[in-house]
Amino acid sequence: MSLSIQHLNKTYGSGAQRRQVLKDIDLEIGDGEFVAIVGRSGCGKSTLLRLLAGLDREHEGRLLHDGVPITGTDLRRGVVFQDHRLFPWLTVAGNVMLPLAELPLPAAEKHARVLERLARLGLADHVDAYPKAISGGMAQRVAIARALVNRPPVLLLDEPFSALDAITRGRLQQELLGLWRDEGLTVVIVTHDIEEAVLLAQRVVVLDRSVRRIQSVDLAHPRRRGDPAFGALHDRLLAEFHDDLAPTA
Ligand SMILES: Nc1ncnc2c1ncn2[C@@H]1O[C@H](COP(=O)(O)OP(=O)(O)OP(=O)(O)O)[C@@H](O)[C@H]1O
Fold first, then answer.
1. Could you tell me which residue ranges the ABC transporter domain spans (predicted)?
2. Rounded distance between C-alpha atoms, residue 112 and residue 129, angstroms
């Protein structure tokens, strides 16, 4: 297994403010798998992703990457957020170079890796641009290039495309699929968009504090929204959300 989540519980706050956000989560994610996590706002999606990334270390239960406990961030897990989080004072290349800063590699090798990643993401002509001079879609490409510059086996994404227009989002979704396929990545994407989840993932996990449903998506790529099988899966998952609106005991 690439990522293993065992009996995971997560609470925020203490005393009267104590609030359980994740409850008894068990999930195994295989090498090279593409998993989407969906759920209504506030159901704990981002919390789960931050724990997998090692950005938050306070939890009960076990979180393993290749059998080793996750105790902090790691260059073997690239992370992309909804906002690109680029440093405005660094160029595109400078931003993508950052994760390599501490690595004992010759400068020429680092530079070559950065250029290769930027070329892969269609940014070869924007290497020396500053973030304010590029579009939101390009900035998100840079964020993906940065997350993948060290060739991590795992890519974690939290609503990476939700701030983009529909056309740009569609392009980046296809590029993500291409990267997953070509590089054998294990991908975990958090999204509130069921259509995006069905379009991309092999398994869709519906989260509602605990795992409510795990839906396999056995449709070949390229998937088409107009395909009846696509629509049926989409509607089945959507029904879980409607149930979420009902008061829980
Ligand atoms: N640092 C924090 N301290 C206290 N509560 C928090 C913290 N971070 C998140 N929460 C709360 O935990 C719950 C889950 O938050 P989380 O961001 O994981 O949900 P989400 O499913 O990603 O939501 P959204 O889709 O709106 O981003 C929410 O009620 C949120 O207010």
1. 3-234
2. 17
